[in-house]
Amino acid sequence: MDFKKINMNDAITMVRLSVPTTVQSIMPPLSSAFMISFISSFGMNTIAGFGVARNLELIMFMPTTGMCMAVTSIVGQCVGAKRHDRAMDYLKSSMIIGGSLIAITSVLVILFSGQLTAVFGQGAEVAQVVSRFFSIISIGYVLYMLTSCMQGYITGIGKPGMAMVLLVLYYIVFRIPTAYIFKQLFGLNGVWFAFLISHILSMIVAFVMVSYIQKTYSAEYRICHKLGA
User: Fold this and answer.
1) Which portions of the chain are predicted below pLDDT 70?
2) pTM of the complete model
3) If you ran DSSP here, which 8-state letter would residue 172 be given?
4) What is the pLDDT of residues 42-51, one digit of tens each?
5) What is the pLDDT of residue 182?
6) Do 52 and 126 form a contact (C-beta atoms < 8 A)?
7) What pLDDT is stored for residue 32 in this prediction?
8) Residue 49: its pLDDT value, please?
């Protein structure tokens, strides 16, 4: 490999694409650190319950992560083929399939949260925390799946910066201030509701972003069609 022949524009492009991805990967642990600081005053059982819930979320989010990566890949192929219309078709299909899958998973986790908590060697008090956590946030996981599909679409269409902004809003801007304020008003349940609110608001923002991208490409298509005519 001749490193002297590396194109500087290619290097700049790689950095431009990698920075948003790096920032996105930092968001989840940073958000969790803030959440732990908020719930620490409620005792060790609450901290342990939050840890168990987050571990279960890792399992639940595997299909979500996979769907996001799949959408990013296939939308990128559609863009390369100049078939933006097909990109939207794939997004719609992923949202239907992914939303149904995560809904089923969420129901199972809620129903068996006690048994799943016992797998981690935790007692009844911790199980109650986990059960309450999932009962409040459960619908949010479906919204998170839909948001992740749209995030994959946004990244695949060539807008990684917008995808980065979406996750910063989701994990930091929407969640952390809301958790702090709601904790003062409603206690521990307020912190859990902050998760749900971040899911709702992020899905709305993602939908607005996708709609904007669609309008932009539709306008470009009309201009190119007129010029071609």
Assistant:
1) 1-8, 10-11, 218-229
2) 0.87
3) I
4) 999 999 999 9
5) 97
6) yes
7) 92
8) 92
**Which three-class secondary structure state does DSSP give residue 187?**
coil
* AA letter at 180: Y
Element (H, E) at 183: helix 175-186
What 123-131 contacts at long range (C-beta under 8 Å, 24+ apart), as own/partner pairs, is: 123/45, 125/45, 125/49, 126/45, 126/48, 126/49, 126/52, 127/49, 128/49, 129/45, 129/46, 129/48, 129/49, 129/50, 129/53, 130/49, 130/52, 130/53, 130/56
Check: CB of residue 60 under 8 Å from CB of residue 102.
yes
Task: Mention every residue, 6+ apart, whose C-beta is less than 8 A from residue 138.
Answer: 106, 107, 109, 110
pLDDT of residue 41: 93
Centre a 10 Å sphere on the Cβ of residue 45 and count the other Cβ atoms it contains: 16
Give CA–CA dist 81/27, Å, rounded: 32
Report which of 181, 178, 227 is spatially closest to residue 202, judged by C-alpha positions: 178
| Phi, then psi, of 114 in degrees rounded to 5 | -65, -50
26: Cβ–Cβ under 8 A, 6 or more apart, which residues? none
